[in-house]
Amino acid sequence: MNTITNLFEMFKNVINELNNFWNVYNEIITTCNTIGSYTFKDVYYKIPIDSHVYVEVEVDPLNPLNCPKFNLHGLPASIEKFQERLNEINPYLIWSTDNSFKENILNVFQITTLQLQYEEEDPEHYIASQNDLNCCYICYDQLDTAIKKQTKLCINEKCDALYHMSCICEWLLNSGSTPMFEHLQGKCPQCEEDMLVALENFDLIKT
């Protein structure tokens, strides 16, 4: 009998925790101008914080009131100030359970309002801007595109993002990609197009 009672109490606790998550879910989709459509099972949400930048937030279903994880999307020139902001502060110290989710987003990124919509850059301007920057889209350091093994070109013509091999391999590994036949498969961090990266001459992977 005690076992059944304990299981029932555990079940009630889980339901209570999920109720908090569902409340946060409703708040996000009704107040944060989210990009795309979502269901109760989703934990990732795209929120436009600039006309050409959106932040993808990951909410922990078991701790939905805590500060989420942030992943910025957009051209490096557009997201630079927001990335610098994240690097300068500790979002976990700014995030407050006394504020709404929207208020916390505004405080973290030091903005006064959320964008009504996210607009992709014009493809020609997009590629031209990237060519001018000539930098890795992960670490933002300059790279030598003449050294083929140091860069990986995204196959999406509208993206065409460049990466240091070490940066993109580490990114894919941290995203859960498992090396198979000396390759890593995953998504481009910039446009989420499928990527297949060869690991030859790359010593990050130890077998």
From TrEMBL:
Signal peptide boundaries: none
GO molecular function term, any single one: ubiquitin protein ligase activity
Q: Name one GO biological process term.
A: protein monoubiquitination
Keyword vocabulary terms for this entry: Metal-binding, Zinc, Zinc-finger
Q: Where is the RING-type domain positioned along the sequence? A: 136-192
Please give the CDD domains that the UniProt record associates with this protein. DRWD-C_FANCL
Q: Does the keyword Zinc apply?
A: yes
The record's Gene Ontology cellular component field reads:
Fanconi anaemia nuclear complex
Establish whether keyword GTP-binding is in the entry: no
What Pfam families does its record include? Answer: FANCL_C, FANCL_d3
* PANTHER family the UniProt entry points to: E3 UBIQUITIN-PROTEIN LIGASE FANCL (PTHR13206:SF0), UBIQUITIN LIGASE PROTEIN PHF9 FANCONI ANEMIA GROUP L PROTEIN (PTHR13206)
Protein's name in the database: E3 ubiquitin-protein ligase FANCL
